[in-house]
Amino acid sequence: GAVVSQHPSRVICKSGTSVKIECRSLDFQATTMFWYRQFPKQSLMLMATSNEGSKATYEQGVEKDKFLINHASLTLSTLTVTSAHPEDSSFYICSARDFGQGYANTGELFFGEGSRLTVL
Amino acid sequence: AQTVTQSQPEMSVQEAETVTLSCTYDTSESDYYLFWYKQPPSRQMILVIRQEAYKQQNATENRFSVNFQKAAKSFSLKISDSQLGDAAMYFCAYSENNDMRFGAGTRLTVKP
């Protein structure tokens, strides 16, 4: 199957600083990527849809100025948590759909390994 | 908006036995996809099984099978011959080939 990689897997930062998380599709081109957030013992909540070459689409209640998404190439999307606070501590997961290998007709998403953010 | 409901926060099964995890969803669409994903302690999301709504035949992947009832909007997962490695969080998910929405999850414990 298609491979999606996230970096870093773990990051600890001080309150007020910004943190960037990268999501890469390693063996396919992803025009669209999705960013999810998962609090402990909870489900994955869609934050935003990242579109290559255009602005991201944010879900209701997600602050677009706090969670900056850039999708500058077909293989890379970045999520920047700006002015992070302890309540932003969470597990962030990206995913993408591989349209190049017939997966477009299956609806399947391929997920990165996730990034655990801890804000002190 | 589409919603996915998993009414069993936790389930337990004896090794080698069978367990069924429940999932219901709400949609006004006729074409969509349903999934079961497994999330072990590593937090990596692993696809277990997939079902296309237009297919009447229930999907099967080795020990995993689904009972898809489109009219009832129900999509349960049956795990046969449960193994210790099946212990994980299981998420039911819905997609219309754009984004994907998840249920709250069911934590499955497998007892030796």
Structure characterization notes:
The complex is a heterodimer of chains A (120) and B (112). Chain A has 120 residues and is mainly β. Chain A is built from no helices and 11 strands. By secondary structure, chain B is mostly beta strands. In chain B, the strands form 3 sheets. In chain B, strands 2, 5, 6, 10, 11 and 12 form a 6-stranded mixed β-sheet that branches. At the A-B interface, strand 4, strand 5 and strand 9 of A face strand 6 and strand 11 of B.
Q: In percent, how much strand structure appears in the residues of chain B?
A: over 45%
Mean model confidence by pLDDT of chain A: 91
Sketch the major β-sheet of chain B: 6 strands, mixed
Poorly predicted parts of chain B: none
Question: Radius of gyration of chain B, Cα only, in angstroms?
Answer: 13 Å
**What is the 3D form of chain B?**
globular
Task: Indicate the topology.
The complex is a heterodimer of chains A (120) and B (112).
Chain A: E1 4-7, E2 10-13, E3 19-25, E4 32-38, E5 44-51, E6 57-58, E7 67-73, E8 76-81, E9 90-96, E10 110-111, E11 115-119
Chain B: E1 3-5, E2 10-14, E3 19-21, E4 24-26, E5 33-39, E6 46-52, E7 60-61, E8 64-69, E9 74-79, E10 88-95, E11 100-102, E12 106-111
Parallel strand pairs in B: 2-12
Antiparallel strand pairs in B: 1-4, 3-9, 5-6, 5-10, 7-8, 8-9, 10-11, 10-12
